[in-house]
Amino acid sequence: MQGFNINESKILKRILSFDNSKGDNQNPSLAKKGTHSNLNHQSSQNPTTCFHHHTKKIFVGSWNVGGIEPPKNLDMEDWLETQNNMADIYVLGFQEIVPLNAANVLGPQNRRVSRKWNSIIGAALNKRMPIKKGERTGEPQKVYPLKEQEQVCEKSDGGQDFQCIISKQMVGMFVTIWVRRDLYRSIHHLNVSSVGCGIMGCLGNKGSISIRFCLHETSFCFICSHLASGGKEENRRQRNIDAAEILYRTSFPADPLHDMPEKIIDHDRIVWLGDLNYRIYLPDFATKSLIKRRQWETLLKHDQLKMELTEGHVFQGWHEGAIEFPPTYKYHPNSEDYIGCDQKQLTKKKRAPACISLRKREIDDQ
Asked: Where do the segments described as Disordered lie (predicted)?
């Protein structure tokens, strides 16, 4: 495999700074840094006890890899910013880690590829060589309860700064979360909920993987989704339906003793990431011209998702940061040319470029 390059315009990332504090007369706050958009949800309760007050950085990234396995020498340090700007927690969502063909959608789960991704991610975060073939790569599909997390931490290499606490695959979607070792004891109520919205409205070629946990006394929920594709009007409506279905059908185990939320929007902090598949609603020649002139504001006026948000059709109450980068969808492999927009490149499909970004939801105090 040649030149599986990481390019910021094609792979989205953001570092969030969260204030993990809950107490009387104290509202949760979100400080945003970076260049890419996010979607976060904040709510406030009124506990009678003041808990921890720490600020943590959470890196959130999304990447549709187009069904291509990562090469052994893939260097992810630039994307993960491991040189100068290390976060405390890494939440990484992938789409199409395997081709979305009938064998993968209807057949048994191919977990070999997700293990390979985890090996490369662990190598980048812990600055070591990826695990070689035949060596153990752990159990990326297992959710470790708190006590088991501590045991894993104690058994791990003393030089390993980050440990995968959970990863989950559903067909081509894959979510993996890595945390600093000293945060293990502060994380609890780790759960996952998957929703299939694909073929027949239930298969996992489209849908979401949602993971929630508590860090100290603050609950987090991360939703990695891959919504319906296609540039037709019915495809746009189906994307709205998929998003609504994910919010409605995602459910986490109840825990009355700890007052844990069961639904996505009931968590303190929420980030929605992934391939949302909304397109730029302009003729191809106009889109290409605006991209060349870096007219992002004009492009965003014709972004399907922006239009749906404005009209209140989807993601009501969700917000995102400034978008100051080219459309991220969909390039010819290892090039800066969009599929379907270059007459020199022969392709069966015309694909309108789109901004596939991370988004956030903020809810005012009730």
From this structure: 19-49
